[in-house]
Amino acid sequence: MKYALIGCGRISPNHVAAALKNRLEIIALCDCKKENAVDKIKKFDLSGSVKVYDDYHEMLRRECPQIVAIATESGKHAQIALDCLDYGCHLIIEKPIALSLGDADRIIEKANRMNLKVCACHQNRFNKSIRKIREAVEKNRFGKLFYGTAHIRWHRDYEYYDRAKWRGTWEQDGGALMNQCIHNIDLLRWMLGDDIEEVVGMTDRLAHEYIEAEDFGIALIRFKNGAYGIVEGTTDVYPQNLEETLYLFGEKGTVKAGGQSVNVIEEWRFSDMLDDSETVKAQFHENPPNVYGYGHTPLYADMIEAIQNDRQPYVDAEAGKRALELVLAIYKSSLTKTAVRFPLKEGATGEFRKKFVVT
Prior knowledge:
This protein is α/β, with parallel strands linked by helices. The chain folds into two domains: 2-124 and 296-315, Rossmann fold (3-Layer(aba) Sandwich); 127-290 and 322-352, Dihydrodipicolinate Reductase, domain 2, CATH 3.30.360. It has helices at residues 12-21, 34-43, 56-63, 77-86, 101-114, 128-138, 158-163, 176-179, 182-191, 277-283, 296-309, 317-336, and strands at residues 2-6, 25-30, 51-53, 67-70, 90-94, 118-121, 145-153, 196-204, 216-223, 228-234, 243-250, 253-258, 264-270, 340-341. The strands form two sheets. The chain has an eight-stranded mixed beta sheet. The chain has a six-stranded parallel beta sheet with strand order 3-2-1-4-5-6, with helices on both faces.
């Protein structure tokens, strides 16, 4: 299948590597700064076979890719996605799928109408640890799920935000919850049953007075099945990333996934004694070089199979919308100082521009 990538920044090497490992025919890389695309050409030794563009419209028109991955600023995901769908492209969209529920709905509606596949790039669902935990949930090994918690305790400094001016802005990004924490927020919602009753959230900007959005957020989520979820996310941890953890507590089981990006099972306790805890912890342990993990490659493999077999991807556009919805609901609760009921009818990061004053 012919493949193209739009956006050649921080996360793009993971996409190029995943495309190569899945034997996609990489035909073009596009970035508004051509030197970013050229850099990836050199990094992966793609010279001679891959064209470089700084205008994705021109690239789509000339190259006609079958699969396009979108890894630009978050605020540009939706419009690029809609344009790519017009050209008949299947899509892999980096998180978040969009910055408004309206845009997410437009992507979903157009893709369904044109029978095109859209995958939300929540690659941590493909972690070995997460797949093992999900299997336990689906086999009801926890019994009744009581609650789960997602902790994202990371560090981002001035250099990180200064390197890309869109980061931390409401128009193009959002804050810690939308950017750094949305992967674990996605996992928490997915594991606890997806259907939410209401959420209460608080956000603040404790250390990064030069960005528009939050660097700290907490939330309490009540699910329709009676379970509760707790989110704690920040980019204020000194002096470097500390951990990303996911806990699940049920009447018959307790699990903790930790490590850089929930790639390690640290606790595995079930009343059914179907497997040995130490064996599980040893077998489902990964040590990736960074917080992006190894999930892009299996995510790409699943997307290719979804296209070939005309089914929805394992992490489809609806899943991307659900993660977006939860973050927007936390923002709304923090702004209005009230509980927010689900489903959220509308919402966009731009609604929260006056939350903090930039100094």
